[in-house]
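User: hey, got a sec? need Sulfhydryl oxidase folded
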Amino acid sequence: MTAEALPAGQPLRTTKETHPNLPPGLVLGPDGKPCKVCNSWQDWAKMKVKKKDDGAGTAPSTSKTAAGATAAAAAVALTASTSTSTPASADARANCPPDTAALGRATWTFLHTTAAYYPLTASKTQQTQMRSLLTSLPGLYPCTWCADDFGKDIVANPPDVTGRAGLSKWLCERHNEVNRKLGKTEFGCGEKNLAERWKDGPADGSCD
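Assistant: Yep! Here you go:
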């Protein structure tokens, strides 16, 4: 599949036809190579499995069978994995550079929390600062296709920076837009929901 054949707003990914030596589905960066911060660590692990599997082709048939079984087992394990890592895998990767899921979670956490502490009614200076922060993200965010997609969303839906309630709801709606594209569960964007999630914690005191 070529870039022209991709749906608008979708990242360019590897296919068996375009990149026979790479696992299909990896997101490519502007340089045409797999983008580390645009893919999950599970995707990168698949690439290592494929390289090992390809390298086993020169081994004797018994070794090839063993290598194939090992690669197949690893592939099954990776397929079973989700973006929500188990505690053991999260601990094992605590010092690793962020993948696209970790970067996304950290960015959304920062933005939602910043909005939760934004003034109820923002001054002109604060509005300018917040607008600058949001509009700078498409030019600075490391995952280029994510940044481009967010940039288009900002143009189509200009941020409400007048105060806490408007900004919090706007960010929640932008986050849900991404969740819809990824097939994930959407968040409740009510004022009470957002305050509990990002500032006050639940009423039962479980986060105190």
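Quick note: The CA atoms of residues 5 and 67 lie 35 Å apart. Let me know if you need anything else on Sulfhydryl oxidase.
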